[in-house]
Amino acid sequence: MATTPLHGTTTGTAETGPPPARSVLRDTAFLRLWAGTTASGLATWALPFVLGLAVLHRELGAAALGLALAARTAGFLAAVAVGGVLADRHSRRAVVFWSALAAAVAAPLLALGLGRSLILMTLAAALAGAGQGACRPAFQALTAETVAADRRQQANAAMTMAVRTSTLAGPTLTALLAALVDAGTLLLGIGLLWLVAALLPGRPAAPRPAEASPAPAGPVAPAPAPRASLRAEFVDGIREARRHPWFLAGLGALTAVIALGYSATGVALPLVSRDRYGTEWVLAAAMTAYTVGALGGALVTARRRPRSEGWSALAGLALYGFAPLSLMLPVHPAVVIAAYVVAGIGIELFNVPWFTATQREVAPDKLARVSSLDFLLSYGLAPLGLALMAPAIGVFGVTPVLAVCAGACFLVPAAAALVPTARHFGRAPGPRAD
């Protein structure tokens, strides 16, 4: 991570140079937040995997699985915008606590309804999704409160590395546990992870700017203004997002890559692995390669900050286009695996600077609302892309659909890079990192 001083950072003398930045990994408050975020990420990933194992063990039908996952997605989308408003209106730590607690309560309800009550399972899945959705923007904003500005890129890299490591090791660990316990017990374990996410993060040492300002002094204090409605405050967050052209452009590019590129490869990779290569090994190897590449990308962004960080991030996002491109061509499986490594590196070359720039540029009292827009669009349109991709492949064929999606992955980020302020994600260029 670059150690260039920012506003409010104390610098050293000409003889001694700037003092070394203290590693974010030595900050107890951040480590607690990191552990809580990691627990929530692992629980989020584990739920569909455990429900899939329940189908394999005939504890749950395929139709019930689809309904539960759809309810979870609906709960997420319904809660993410509300969670962003609440996290800007109230204590972000409290929003994390109550939303994670809701997801924790949902886990035993899912276990209770497994194979017994489809209605209970559906409602519990919606509650789990709501808890997940409400805590996402609060966690993003809480990171900005907990970590100093000059260490946020390192902090965001540490967060994403934890998530990627969980994704890499999680399937093996869950499969081993599934050999010892049933799906209901695994669901209870997911509930415990959400309890960790609810209880572990501490209160930030420094209050938000709005909280730090004392009340006006004087014999007659003005009456507080009436609180705006949730809808009005969410619209205010949209106005804040519109103040940052780089954010709108980057969000459009991210949404296009997820809804088109990620959805296309999610549907096409199993088909290509089976039909072209005649083995499931290519599917497993490509997904593992993507996660390994993402870990490498997070390591790079933790230590380096290019002069044109916005252009660099958007170029990284465009690298995902190599994944659908590799699936179009009759190439050796090693080429497909290499393309997924490149795609994984690229996605974190985008993600870490993107989160850091949002935390830096957006007004602190609107950060959670703007973050909720990010999750609402990028994650919200992904199920639509997945739903449309299979019929499109059935009508037009795999190769034409992959060609269109690969083109979108390359061209949309390139177009976003032309938007004013996109080159530096809203900040003036600083000295290049070593």
Describe this structure in words.
It is built from 16 helices and no strands. The chain has helices at residues 28-56, 62-89, 92-113, 118-146, 152-178, 183-199, 209-212, 230-242, 245-275, 281-303, 309-318, 322-328, 333-361, 367-380, 382-396, 398-416. Helix 8 packs across helix 14. The longest helix is centred in the middle third of the chain and has 31 residues, at 245-275.
Give a quick account of the main beta sheet: strands, pairing sense, barrel closure: none
Order of helices and strands: HHHHHHHHHHHHHHHH
Helix content: over 70%
Mean pLDDT: 83
How many helical stretches? 16
Distance between the termini: 9 Å
Q: What would the principal axes of the Cα set say about the shape?
A: globular
Outline of the structure:
With 434 residues, the protein is an all-alpha fold. The protein has helices at 28-56, 62-89, 92-113, 118-146, 152-178, 183-199, 209-212, 230-242, 245-275, 281-303, 309-318, 322-328, 333-361, 367-380, 382-396, 398-416.
Descriptors:
434 residues, 16 helices, disordered C terminus, mainly alpha, globular
SSE layout:
Layout: H1 28-56, H2 62-89, H3 92-113, H4 118-146, H5 152-178, H6 183-199, H7 209-212, H8 230-242, H9 245-275, H10 281-303, H11 309-318, H12 322-328, H13 333-361, H14 367-380, H15 382-396, H16 398-416
